[in-house]
Amino acid sequence: MFKRFRRLRTTPTLRSLVRETRLHTADFIAPLFVRQEGKSAPIASMPGVLQMDLEDLLKECTLLQNLGIKAVLLFGLPSHKDSTGSSALKDDHIVATATRAIKENFPDLCVVADLCFCEYTDHGHCGILKNGVLDNDATLEILAKQALILVQSGVDMIAPSSMLDGMVAALRQALDSNGFSHLPIMSYSTKFASSYYGPFREAANSAPSFGDRKAYQMDFSNRFEAILESLEDEVQGADILMVKPALAYLDIIRDIKERTLLPLAIYNVSGEYSMFKLAQAHNLMDYNNLVLETMTAFKRAGADMIISYHAKEVAELLQKGF
To answer: Known catalytic residue: 277?
Structure first.
């Protein structure tokens, strides 16, 4: 006698009844790029994604909210860059300005602010440089200042992405001591130095002008260090952990999920998105099912929330009953 597993696969209804992992629109966070100057512009390497002016950003929020997507992750494209990212330390910070506009029009939409300096520095690195090397502790000081500007604008959650040692502890202390102890931190707690970020650097105008970020982002060869990075951020006070990128790191997602009770986010990054779009353009695969299969894999591996440029597409597919 043998087990006939196929009995529960014979009809769509049976398959649905025994399905273990399900996608929901509320699982998704949509990353958006907002620019301080100029009209909206397409991002060549990321079909369907724009650098948006404020007017188009609000239109996009209308579409997202109508689809049931409840959260956005904002990246800012400033009009001025310098060696210290000073435009990120002003009240007219583009993400702060965008947040105020979103909250005025969509008070229930959760606004998460990416917190870093790579978009704001003329050298493209994630903070203050000293002799060509990122100065960890000096950057922590201005990171806290940027965070306070953002939360004062109405941001619901901050997401530090620079992979600095001690960044969560520094931010938690700054928030708590300035009346924002209620605001959560979603840390990019395990972020690898990855080639999958290529299109993002066009989208955010943030490519390093020299060198790379391997001295502060993680070596993709290291499993146990990846786990330690996230567990350390939990100790420092992170409310949500994250693995970035996602597709090549399903093992790390599972490893971390098995070691924490905190919610776990994953970032389905620009290179992953662009590869799928290229496959779609050449009709290489069933695009809709490819996207849904991949999103399900993220959730099956342990993701509680999925940051993805596919968020709107997935919401539309789920509405259609895919």
So the answer is: no
320 catalytic? Reply is no
Annotated catalytic residue within 244, 257, 277, 312: 244
* pLDDT tens sequence across 114-161: 999 888 888 878 888 988 888 999 999 999 999 999 999 999 999 999
Q: Is the pTM of this model over 0.90?
A: yes
Residue 167's pLDDT is what?
Answer: 96
In sequence order, the 6+-apart residues with CB closer than 8 A to the CB of 176 are none
- Segment 197-234, tens digit of pLDDT: 989 877 766 677 676 777 889 999 999 999 999 999 99
The single residue listed with the structure tokens 């070691």 is 259
Residue whose C-alpha is closest to residue 236's, from 175, 307, 178, 304: 175
What whole-number distance in Å separates Cα of residue 118 and Cα of residue 84? 10
Q: Of 248, 250, 192, 242, whose CA–CA distance to 21 is shortest?
A: 250
Which candidate, 25, 23, 5, 4, places its Cα nearest to that of 15? 5
- Which of these is catalytic: 3, 39, 191, 277? 191
Pair of tokens at residue 234: 């939990």
DSSP letter (8 states) at residue 35: E
**pLDDT score at 286:** 97
DSSP state string for 94-124? HHHHHHHHHHHH-TTSEEEEEE-STTTBTT-
